[in-house]
Amino acid sequence: MVTLELTRLASGMPYIAISALEARLRLAYEQSEADNFITEFNAMMFGSTIAVINDETAIYPQDVAAIFFRLKIPVKFVDANRKELAVDGRGSGVQWHCHSLGGAAGILKNIPTNKQYSDEESLQSGVDDDEEEKLVPCSPS
What we know:
It is built from five helices and seven strands; from the N terminus they run βββααββαββαα. By secondary structure, the protein is α+β, with helices and mostly antiparallel strands. The protein has a domain at 2-88. The strands form two sheets. It has a four-stranded antiparallel sheet. α1 (18-28) packs antiparallel against α2. The chain is globular, with a radius of gyration of 16 Å.
C-alpha cells in the first residue's frame, strides 16, 4: 500500500506534489514496476486537474485516487499528523474524461478525442450519462 501525505495551502486546498508521489511509488515497488506505474500515471494525468504550487507540479488528491484505482494501486491518504483521510475519486477530472469516451470532456480539457461534433450537435451529448456514477477502470489514452 502506498501512503501519501496531503499538503495544504494556507487557503486549505489539499494537493500532492508529483515528485513526492513518484518517490513513494519508488519506495513501494521494484524499480521497473514503479517506472511502469509512473509512466501510466503520467499518461492518465491528462484528464486530471493539475496545479503548479510553489514552483512544483502537483495534483489534487481526488485525481490521484481515481488514477490509482484504475492502476489497481492500493493507496492511503494521511494528513501531516498521519491521520487517515477519506478521499473519493468520483469527482475527478480523470473520472469525467473516462466517462466522456473522448467526447466533449476531452475537447474542453484539451485531450485528443475520437469524435467530432457538428455545429448542430450538442457537445453535452458526449458527457451525458444516465447511469449512476461509479469508478470504472479505463485504459490511459
